[in-house]
Every structure is written in C-alpha cells, then in structure tokens.
Design brief:
Strand order of the largest sheet: 2-1-5-4-3
Number of helices: 11
CATH class of the largest domain: Alpha Beta
Radius of gyration: 48 Å
Distance between the termini: 37 Å
Mean pLDDT: 76
CATH architecture of the largest domain: 2-Layer Sandwich
Oligomer: single chain
Helix content: 40-55%
Number of domains: 3
Amino acid sequence: MRSIRRTLIFTLLSAFTLVMFIASLNGYLASMNKAEGLLDDHLKQLAVALAQSHSVSSETFEDYVLEFDDLEGPSMIAYQIIESGRVIRRTSNAPIDSWSDVVLGLSYRNFGDFRWRVYALEVSETKRVVVAERADVRFVVAETVVLESIYPLLVWLPLLAVLTWFIVTWGLRPLAHLSLWIGLKKENDFTPIALEQTPKELSQIVQSLNGLLGRLGNAFQREKQFGAVAAHELRTPISVAKVHIHNLRLSLKEEANLKALDYVDESVGRLQRVVQQMLDLSRTQPEVIQTRFDPVDLNVVMQQVCVDMWSKFDQKEQTIEFHGAEALPRISGDGALLSLLFENLLQNANRYTPRGGQICVETRCLPTEEVVITVNDSGPGIPEDQRDMVFKRFYRVHHDNQPEGVGLGLAIVGQIARLHRAHIDIANNRLGGASFTVTFPAPEKLQ
C-alpha cells in the first residue's frame, strides 16, 4: 500500500460507483415496470374512449394517435372495433383480419413487422374493442423517461470524486501532522509527542510512539554514559600502568626480562589506543556532539597532523609527502575534530603501509569551491566489495599480515565527516594502495 489517501479514495469511489450502479439498475427496472404500467393504463383508456364514443372516425383517431406519437413513420397505435366477429372500424395500420381471437385483457401480438402490446375490451356479447401499441416504441419512450432521471447521477459522479478527495484529505490531517511532528524531531530529541488535539484513533499510536521514544532515550543515554565513563575511567589506570612499566624497565637489567616487559608495554599501549578511540567515538557522535563551527584552513590542519605523526612514519621508514593547494578557501568546521579525522586517516595509512612505503597527502579546490583532501598510501588497498563497510564500527578489512586494531578509526572518520556534511570516496591509487578522498562542501553551502 503506497498511499493511504489514494487507497481510501479509490476504495470509496469504487464503493460509491457500485452502490450507484446497483441503485440505478434497481431504479431503472422499477421505473421501467412503472412506466409499463402507465402505458398499459393509457392503452386501456384509449380502448374505453373508443367504446364510449362512436362519433370518432378512423381518420380523426389516427390524427390523434399520430399527434401523440413524436416518432417518424407509421403510427404507434392501431385498433379494431369488432362487432359480431366482423371489423367495422380500424386504423390503416391495423390488420384487415379480425382480432376476435385475441384474449381479453393485456397481451402481446406480432403483426406488420412489429411486436405490439394489445389490450382487448369486451363491450358487449357481440362487440369488442382491441387497441394495440408498438412495443418497441413503448420501450423507447419508457427508457428515455427513466434514463433522464438516472443521467444526473452519472454526471455528478466526478463531483463526488472531488468531494471524496477533499473529505479524505481533511480526515487524514491528524496523521499528516503526526508525521510532520516526527519528521521534525532531531536525532537526539526523545521528548514525547504532544499534539494539540489527538483523535481517538491516533491516541494509541501516539502513546506507543511516546513509550518507544522514552525507551530509546534511556537506552541512548545509558550507551552514551557507558562509552564516555568507561573510556575515561580506563585511561587513568592505563596511564599509571605505563608509568610503572617505565620505572620497572629502569630497574631491570636482564635481556629476557626486558623483552617480556616490552611485550607488556606494547599490549598496554594497544589497550590505551583502543580506550582513546572509544572515547573519541563517543564524543564525535553527530547526535550528541555540541560543537561550534568556525572558519578552518585545512592546509594548516593537515600540515600540523603530519608533523605530529612524523615519528610514527619515521619508525617504519615511510616517506610522507604533502602537496597543499595555494589559496585554499577556508571551510566552516571544528578544527579539533578535523584534526582527529585526518589523524585517524593517516594512522590507518601508517598501519597498513609496509615498512619503507609511501604516503601522499594532497589538498585542492574544485571549480565548485568544494575543498578536497586526498590521502594515498602504498598499502594493500581495500577491495571494492568492502569499501562500504569500512566505516562501520569494529569492521576490519581482511588482509594477510593484518596489523593490530579493533576497527574504530575509520568509524570515527565517518562520524566526523557526516558532522561536516563531507563525502568520502575510496579507490585505488597509482601507488597500488588505498586512496581516501574527503570532499567538503563549499563554505556558502554549509549553513
């Protein structure tokens, strides 16, 4: 069902049309029977008039009959006056042979290439008056009168369709208001829905929605608090453990103990990075973040991130190049979050690029004034069928010799990009690895 309104209108019009058809058909049949009875009465009156007035000549009666008949051609009325079995008077269209064998009352008879409605009146034992009327003309006259009363119903059907459309639309206004109210809610708005006048039919829906919003709000608040509190509480003991490891390293002299301590230090370092990513992921959710955008020069932000991460590239003997466009327009954004975005992109490139590999960063401005940042690496790349999945939490691309990680870095990148209405494309580059292209909208388009 694509549209409740269209379905209701179509159903109601179909029902109205069916009811009107049945009512018109019944009215047509009843009216035809009534018209048939009226014409039969008229036929009887003609017979009685003939029986009572012998002064009416055949020619005069034919003129009267033709005046009654508005159709062209022979008269629709024929009669015979029969006395002692012999026809003493008749119309020109009546048969010459006597109708003395016609049963008394109403019946049908065929003559003169037509079917006739016949009424036989016995005036006396020797005298009979038989009047006939063409059945086809009777049917046309009766049907014309009946259809004239039915046609207005058909003519008014389009108006009924328009009225039905307006009535259904008016009746569905509360549902449209409810839909508009829900559509205007923000991602972090879990307040109950409060319509000014809630129809009885929508009360249960509104109550169910408010109950759902309340449960979602509580669950969302618990998740937000858990992520932030857990990550924050874990940072302190991890930092203390790092200090103790450092102090312990100074006191140990045996090589075997130092190697074991290095392994512990590396494990704690990984745990520290995971906790930091959890904290970053929690505080960069577009639904909960409260940020203020200012003009940001992405050349400056990118250069600073490259400088801050130089030691990590140097440890793996990787070459990093930065090609910044001149006169790059400033975008509207949060400088700290954008630094975190590019930091995670470069960490991803550093992690997947082998020792001695290359990483290239480029900034440029499109003719549409959109600002584009591209990060290329010489790592294994990302298969095309997995590129839509890498921004999901805890998803990791499957590679041989896969580096350590939990799959949160690119999820953070995706959240910050959505917050800035930026679009990220993933492709292969000339170095053979992955190419991440982040396109920021033109400053005047980001309101």
